[in-house]
């Protein structure tokens, strides 16, 4: 609830604010919901001033409906689709990773989530020539491996592509929240050239920083998790940035794969992919959640020195049967 303060409107002077506070009216919600005649008798403020204040507050703080055509035009003007550099993976994502949305890769340790993230980061930086902010929370992102992949994919553009990838290493959720706040501020101010072309943020992984705060006697972990998710959504939607995250996988009630971080996190990402396979170079990608395509679309990819390569795809029914097996 937004607090009442001097300056919200011309009629809301310090004297009027003091009278309202003495009557127990301290927030915008309390002011708008209270009967004006009752407020007038309690606060000794003229009815005309109260009406003027209320009109201004309603304009400033009310959510007005937007027409479908206007909303559609806004989506078209602010949404971009970033190719992953892999045609099969792009097909599963209906073109690629969408700005204004959260995309999650979940899988067991060693399944190749980090390598996929590095491959996507390199493609966006070298081929699409957009900036990437890579947040490493596990120490799994290797600078040498990143350079090797750049040499195999970017060629003579290696130096330019590397300059478009910003790297941050953090190990607790409060550092992550601080980074998200600073990133939003930098984008809004346009004070640094890097943030003016920032189109992709990778968090590898969200589970590594949030899981230690959950369970046991720690009561603030759930609130921290929801705060992180809210900040990621605000950053992606308000600044047209695509967010790619990695998460662990756990076994659900019916032995089906579930994302880590519990039920509250299950509905946070807009799109979720399951990465399966360890030990070999082949990885099966399974689409578990998306607002645009049927579930259980699948593709088999190969991890290589140059990133991720295509093998073949499966229909949704075939992939679901494989998941059940």
Describe this structure in words.
The chain has helices spanning 14-22, 28-33, 36-43, 47-61, 68-78, 87-92, 113-126, 143-153, 158-163, 173-189, 193-196, 206-210, 221-238, 263-266, 316-324; strands at 81-82, 97-98, 102-107, 131-136, 165-169, 198-204, 242-247, 249-251, 257-259, 271-276, 282-289, 298-304, 307-314. With 325 residues, the protein is an alpha/beta fold. The chain has a nine-stranded mixed beta sheet with strand order 5-4-6-7-3-10-11-12-13. A two-stranded antiparallel sheet has the order 1-2. Strand 10 and strand 11 form a beta hairpin. Helix 10 runs parallel beside helix 13. The radius of gyration is 24 Å and the shape is elongated. 36% of the residues are buried.
Backbone structural class = alpha/beta
Number of strands: 13
Residue runs with pLDDT of under 50 for 5 or more positions: 313-319
Strand order of the largest sheet: 5-4-6-7-3-10-11-12-13
Determine the number of helices (DSSP H or I, runs of at least 4 residues). Answer: 15
N-to-C order of helices and strands: HHHHHEHEEHEHHEHHEHHEEEHEEEEH
| Largest sheet features | 9 strands, mixed
Name the average pLDDT: 85
Distance between the termini: 50 Å
The proportion of residues in beta strands is 15-25%
| Structural shape | elongated
Global Rg? 24 Å
Helix content: 40-55%
């Amino acid at each position: 609830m937004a607090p009442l303060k001097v300056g919200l409107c011309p009629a809301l002077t310090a004297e009027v604010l003091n009278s309202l506070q003495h009557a127990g009216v301290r927030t915008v919600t309390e002011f708008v919901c209270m009967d004006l005649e009752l407020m007038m008798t309690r606060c000794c403020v003229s009815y005309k001033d109260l009406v003027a204040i209320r009109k201004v507050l309603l304009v400033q703080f009310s959510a007005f409906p937007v027409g479908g055509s206007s909303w559609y035009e806004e989506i078209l003007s602010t949404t971009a689709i970033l190719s992953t550099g892999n045609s099969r993976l792009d097909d599963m994502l209906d073109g690629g990773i969408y700005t204004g949305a959260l995309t999650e890769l979940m899988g067991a340790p060693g399944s190749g989530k980090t390598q996929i993230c590095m491959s996507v980061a390199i493609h966006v930086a070298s081929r699409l020539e957009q900036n990437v902010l890579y947040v490493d929370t596990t120490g799994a992102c290797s600078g040498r491996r990143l350079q090797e992949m750049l040499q195999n994919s970017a060629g003579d553009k290696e130096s330019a592509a590397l300059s478009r990838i910003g790297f941050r290493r953090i190990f607790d959720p409060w550092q992550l929240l601080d980074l998200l706040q600073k990133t939003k501020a930098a984008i809004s101010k346009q004070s640094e050239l890097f943030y003016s072309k920032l189109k992709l943020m990778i968090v590898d992984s969200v589970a590594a920083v949030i899981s230690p705060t959950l369970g046991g006697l720690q009561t603030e972990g759930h609130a921290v998790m929801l705060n992180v998710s809210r900040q990621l959504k605000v950053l992606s939607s308000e600044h047209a940035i695509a967010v790619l995250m990695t998460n662990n996988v756990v076994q659900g009630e019916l032995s089906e794969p579930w994302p880590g971080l519990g039920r509250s996190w299950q509905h946070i990402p807009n799109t979720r992919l399951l990465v399966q396979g360890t030990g070999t170079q082949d990885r099966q990608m399974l689409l578990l959640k998306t607002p645009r395509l049927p579930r259980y679309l699948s593709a088999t990819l190969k991890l290589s020195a140059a990133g991720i390569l295509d093998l073949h795809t499966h229909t949704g029914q075939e992939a679901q049967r494989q998941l059940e097996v």
